[in-house]
Design a protein that fits this description.
The chain has seven helices and 28 strands. The chain has a 15-stranded mixed beta sheet that branches. A four-stranded antiparallel beta sheet has the order 16-15-21-22. It has a four-stranded antiparallel beta sheet with strand order 19-20-24-23. 12% of the residues lie in helices and 34% in strands.
Length: 439
């Protein structure tokens, strides 16, 4: 989860990858996504109340806005904090090496590189699970300098080994002073399918971090990049999976004992009744998935998302992100949304320090107007579970917030109970209403 330029990729990989094990019978496979606050997560703190976990999710959301839009202020009345390096919401188990060593990484659609801590450690942070030792992997191969993979990373350099063989190094830094420095290498990456089979991909480029320091959590190891760049996981396994992946996220407050799913290949297809699709727009950073939000409706009242000066809808004006809990809008549009929602509510309003528009919600249940996100060619209808969140006992708030006028992020609460599919080849994101607990 580095700054934008760290993931700006200038060349596409041309290596074809094959499976060492076959896909599931339907031509695809699924992997568990573990919410970081689930009881199945090593990050789970049993002493936190549900509302304390929610408060931390709010803060991570605000920090992520500053990563996607470095000059924005997540909330005008929110305390400003540095970007933290372990701020993603979902975790993925995978293995690297031969024999495979299991890794737990943060799955992040806002990152590309797959990296983990590796031995020998010049300066590694404390990690609960064993650190990967590449010398024990028979399939580990350092990537030389002057290769397409090395040159595709802006933050790469050359390091000469004892035999004068030049290897490729990466360097990634974070807003809170955390960093990871190490070597780029090819190795076998193995994913555990929910069907029970193990699916392996040889010659996947990974970052092997030998010098990692900062606010990383000891229960995890690095990042699984799901972004649009050429070294992300979906891009690298794309020749075998049709460059398709999808996920179905269980709502935050119901994710305690269940896991969400991420799908690849034919299993990732999103189709059928009520499916809508919108184009992925090429933006300034190829890591991020830019969509076009034309407007938002509250009930029957439509609010257009137009540029303040030109009064036209700008293509690629919002980023869809699995790692941001809240949905952020430019301040002008957010204030219109807040005002319209307030005009259609009949509950006593409550002031909180967390979000702006909050109401008394007896039994933590609230009924609000239907909010529809009008993407280009796709109207996505959001119910109250997508748009309101309980922030304390008996109080629920609108789960939208204001960013500066140049920033907008479509967060994961709005995506909950939707099957969200990414077709990277045809540049399309699709949405289908789905009970994700039954997928």
């Amino acid at each position: 989860m580095a700054t934008r330029q760290h993931y700006l990729l200038v060349l596409q990989l041309t290596t074809l990858f094959c499976f060492s094990h076959s896909l599931d019978s339907d031509g695809g496979f699924s992997v568990e996504l573990i919410h970081r606050d689930s009881t199945k997560s090593p990050f789970y703190n049993p002493f936190d109340t549900p509302f304390q976990r929610l408060s931390k999710a709010f803060q991570r959301s605000m920090n992520r806005v500053n990563r996607f839009y470095p000059h924005s202020k997540a909330l005008s009345n929110a305390p400003q904090a540095d970007i933290i390096s372990n701020q993603g919401e979902y975790l993925m188990r995978y293995s690297i090496g031969t024999p495979p060593i299991e890794i737990l990484g943060i799955a992040d659609t806002g990152s590309d590189l797959i990296w983990s801590q590796c031995k020998p450690c010049d300066d590694c942070y404390n990690q609960t699970n064993p650190i990967f030792d590449p010398s024990n992997s028979t399939t580990y191969k350092s990537i030389p300098c002057n290769t397409r993979v090395c040159e595709s990373l802006v933050q790469s350099s050359c390091a000469k080994t004892t035999n004068e063989y030049s290897t490729c190094e990466y360097s990634m830094s974070y807003g809170d002073g955390s960093y990871s420095i190490g070597g780029l290498a090819f190795d076998t990456l193995t994913l555990g399918s929910t069907s029970g089979s193990q699916i392996s991909f040889p010659n996947i480029s990974i970052g092997c971090g030998h010098n990692n320091h900062g606010t990383f959590d000891s229960n995890g190891s690095g990042i699984v990049g799901l972004g649009g760049g050429s070294v992300s996981l979906p891009s690298q396994i794309g020749p075998s999976t049709g460059f398709k992946f999808s996920y179905c996220l269980i709502p935050f407050m119901y994710s305690n004992n269940t896991t969400s799913k991420i799908n690849f290949g034919q299993t990732a297809l999103v189709s059928g009744p009520r499916t809508v699709s919108t184009p992925i727009v090429q933006g300034p950073i190829e890591t991020f998935y830019y969509l076009t939000l034309e407007g938002i409706s509250v009930g029957r009242k439509r609010l257009d998302f137009v540029n303040g000066k030109s009064k036209v809808v700008e293509e690629g004006n919002i980023i869809i992100d699995s790692g941001t809990f809240l949905t952020f809008l430019p301040e002008d549009l957010y204030l219109e949304l807040e005002s319209e929602v307030a005009s259609q509510m009949n509950l006593p309003r409550v002031r909180t320090e967390v979000l702006n528009l909050c109401y008394k919600a007896p039994g933590n249940k609230i009924e609000g107007p239907t909010i529809t996100a009008h993407f280009g060619g796709a109207d996505v209808e959001l119910n109250t579970a997508n748009t309101f969140v309980s922030v304390s006992d008996g109080v629920a708030c609108l789960a939208f917030a204001a960013a500066e006028s140049n920033g907008a992020i479509y967060g994961n609460l709005a995506q909950a109970n939707y099957l969200v599919g990414y077709d990277m080849q045809n540049k399309v994101v699709s949405f289908k209403p789905t009970d994700c607990s039954k997928v």
